[in-house]
Amino acid sequence: MNHHPPSPAATIVAHLTVTHPGDRPSELSDCWNQIGVHGNQTCPELPRHTHCHNCPTYAAAAARLLDRPLRTEDRRAWTEHYAQEKHLGAPAKTSALLFRLGAEWLALPTAAFQEIAERRPLHSLPHRRAGIILGLINIRGELLLCASLGRLLGLETGPVAPRMRAEYARLLVADWQGERFTFPVEEVHGVHRFQQTDLHPPPATLARTGFNCTLGVFPWRNRAVGYLDPDTLFTALNRNLT
């Protein structure tokens, strides 16, 4: 275990509280150790100041100790302290919201979401039945575009195990740099934190289409979760509006 040398403030308190004749200037009188709170408490100023720490004499002595030359042993202790190798802490973890589309678990930064809502009626748009945009959904009195991430990422095909069917279907309300969309998903796990060093190249199931916005995958409950790039994702969504 590394022991830090005493701070300058702690050194001053120690010098003022305990008498060290060899360490103090020759003219310094430690009245606090003689007639003050650490002595016989006969100082006539003690009733007025309650404690020696509040006395101007004590403060003046502290100022003189601060101005005294640095002792060789103190200089050596601080030199050894700052010369030690610095041990940096672990980098901050990334916060992401985990959700499921079909059989795939995906994640986006938590900051990209405003709300997790129940599924609600979808108002279709003309000539948009086969595109990425599914229609409009009313969120607290505001009509927002509802997009299919499954179609955008090419994840709508493939069998889904019975235990992974849409029993906990939710609607994610996202906002990234002022762009707001809603996404229907089959299941939402919640917020999960992971280290950026945990990201690995995405598997073929997430890179099999021409469009790929997956930054990488990280392990979670014996699964590989695809971590999506929100900038690329929202750019692609806006491109599909035209």
Task: Please write out the topology.
Layout lengths: L7 H10 L13 H4 L11 H4 L6 H12 L4 H12 L10 E8 L2 E6 L3 E6 L14 E7 L2 E6 L1 H5 L16 E7 L2 E7 L1 E8 L19 E7 L2 E6 L1 H10 L3
Descriptors for this entry?
single chain; 242 residues; OB fold (Dihydrolipoamide Acetyltransferase, E2P); 2 domains; five-stranded mixed β-sheet; three-stranded antiparallel β-sheet
CATH class wording of the largest domain: Mainly Beta
Low-confidence stretches: 7-14, 17-25
| Gyration radius, in Å | 33 Å
Major sheet details = 5 strands, mixed
Strand order of the largest sheet: 8-1-2-10-9
Q: Could you give the distance between the termini? A: 63 Å
Protein model, in words:
The chain has 242 residues and is of the alpha+beta class. It has 2 domains: 8-83, no CATH class; 94-239, OB fold (Dihydrolipoamide Acetyltransferase, E2P) (Beta Barrel). The chain contains 7 helices and 10 strands. The protein has helices spanning 8-17, 31-34, 46-49, 56-67, 72-83, 149-153, 230-239, and strands spanning 94-101, 104-109, 113-118, 133-139, 142-147, 170-176, 179-185, 187-194, 214-220, 223-228. A 5-stranded mixed β-sheet has the order 8-1-2-10-9. A hairpin with a 2-residue loop joins strand 9 (214-220) and strand 10 (223-228). Helix 1 (8-17) crosses helix 4. It is elongated and about 95 Å long. The relative contact order is 0.13.
